[in-house]
Amino acid sequence: MSGSFIIEEELKKLPGQPGVYIMHGAGDEIIYVGKAVSLKNRVRQYFQSSRNKSPKIVKMVSQIERFEYIVTDSELEALVLESNLIKEHRPKYNTMLKDDKTYPYIKVTLGEPFPRILVARGMKKDSSKYYGPYPTSGAVRDTIDLLVRMYHLRTCRRNLPDKRSGMRPCLNYHIGQCDAPCVGNISEEDYRANVMRAVRFLDGDTKEEIAELTEKMQKASQEMKFEEAAGYRDLIESIRIIGERQKITSNDGDDRDIIAVAVDTAKEDNASMNRTEAVAQVFFVRDGKLIGREHFFLTAEDTEEPAMILRSFISQYYAGTPFIPKELMIEREIPDRELLEEWLSESRGKKVRILVPRRGTKEKLVEMAAENAANTLKRDRERMVREEMRTSGAVREIRDLLGIVSANRMEAYDISNISGFESVGSMIVYDKGKPKKTDYRKFKIRTVEGPNDYASMEEILTRRFTRAKEGSAGFTVLPDLVLMDGGKGQVHIAEQVLRDMELDIPVAGMVKDDFHRTRGIWFHDEELPIDTSSEGFKLITRIQDEAHRFAIEYHRLLRSKGQVRSLLDDIEGIGETRRKALLRSFGSLEAIRDAGIEELSQAPSMNRKAAETVWAYFHKENEGGSEPS
């Protein structure tokens, strides 16, 4: 399990409320999404004894590194949110739900002269009005049947008005459930008035209808008409199911973000003043569906009001996000709301509104975001503080150690080759202490032959910053700090390249000890003392390891069979037969390089002389050392 997320401790913090739980794997990918009436009871079941669990569940649990959850007001909301998240993220263990099952909607065809109320399996951007989705088709059909009986709405597929002569009304007219607009028994205006009464019913104005049905149910019961009374009872229950306001999906198909902030004040150790810690929770609604959420950790002065914290979050978050929706829904009024709207509209290129919902579905959505923000703050406060110190806190330590203005964006470089074969370079990027893999870049060395790391580094740095000056996509953002995998020599190479480019960017070297482990930082021609237990040192170590990993990964990618064979072809006396025998016997170039003469000579078609030739080729840089035995 992840060191910063202790499963056993997090299980104790689960609420007993309904919601959706999200399981993450080792790479932080979503591997399972589920819903629960009680998050506490359901999630705990996964980590109890494996008895009676299917092999699939046992395997899934073994891969869980952390989990998160979203609290909802009802199981119905959890059901629909689960569906949205599964469709968005396609978790590999949600096999039972990968059939793209759709939940039923109620559709009112307002674009027709004589509208109908139908069951629909999805929403479309048309002139109709949609309600739902709902968990069962039965409740939807019962409600439609009720509305048809109450308001005499048609269910046929006739294209009205129909001018054909001889048309006759259907059975529904004869049993008193339709006013037969098909034969002109009701005007378009009167019929539409009945439709709008049904729409108000679906909008939640059901008190009068429930009261009327309740009265009829009681009367039928008193008259010993129990079957009729049971029918009214079932209709009332259907109305209540439909009336449970569905907040997870809206029928407007719009994109919006729902934002709420939870604030907590904690006393710092050995400090004379308080700090304010907060969590901003953002729900992402795309095309009318809630598809995910994210929370962000914030710190502020202890006197700062929640409205100011919310305002600051909006201005900072949307300055860096690539997508701005048409609407932000927030929990409270904020300063400069109109100014922020103007700024967001300009950034988006279209009108953006910031709303503070006061009633209805939108208010419930904001309340749900606020509740989840509070839960996140309560549950994850210590973990988020540790994460902040591990990332932003570590960046501040590095910045202060070097005495530079900023170290938010750090670029690290490394070279990888084997005996000069296919030298490659890597550029990795850490933004505010976290890897930004979309900005990673690979370089295949073009102008340098043989294992010359200094010349190779000079080439890739020159190419990288030349592209920046040319405005090439993916290279225009400059780093606050350049980190080299090495000490004095590598740092001087980078400094010279930057001087030639007339760029003023500080350069530091990540120095390793004799065991190839990170030892310290080389800066301004001296190795700076650094606490090896500090978060700053740990971040430098992670960056150096990541740069090395990325370079090695690219090098392996380039070493296809054809490329490896061409290298072996350079060895005198090693033809196609021996080359194939070596590859079959050892499997890789590294294994051939690391093998001794005796091992090489035992491969098919090889003899001692050929083995000595191969060994000498891979160890020619050690000439003058020990002779082959």
Question: Care to give the gist of this entry?
Answer:
With 629 residues, this protein is of the alpha+beta class. The chain has helices at 7-12, 39-46, 55-62, 75-89, 137-151, 171-174, 188-202, 207-222, 226-243, 306-320, 337-348, 360-402, 453-470, 488-500, 535-558, 561-569, 576-586, 589-594, 597-601, 608-618, and strands at residues 19-24, 30-36, 66-71, 105-108, 117-120, 129-131, 256-267, 274-286, 289-301, 327-330, 353-355, 409-418, 421-431, 434-435, 441-444, 481-484, 507-512, 518-523, 526-528.
Task: Please describe what this structure looks like.
- The protein is of the alpha+beta class and 629 residues long.
- The chain has five domains: 7-97, GIY-YIG endonuclease (3-Layer(aba) Sandwich), CATH 3.40.1440; 107-243, no CATH class; 256-388, Nucleotidyltransferase, domain 5 (2-Layer Sandwich), CATH 3.30.420; 409-558, UvrC, RNAse H endonuclease domain (Nucleotidyltransferase, domain 5, 2-Layer Sandwich); 561-622, DNA polymerase, domain 1, CATH 1.10.150.20.
- The chain contains 20 helices and 19 strands.
- The strands form four sheets. Strands 12, 13, 14, 15, 16, 17, 18 and 19 form an eight-stranded mixed β-sheet that branches.
- Helix 8 runs antiparallel to helix 9 and helix 12 crosses helix 15.
- The longest helix has 43 residues, at 360-402.
- Mean pLDDT is 81; it is low at 95-101, 267-274 and 621-629.
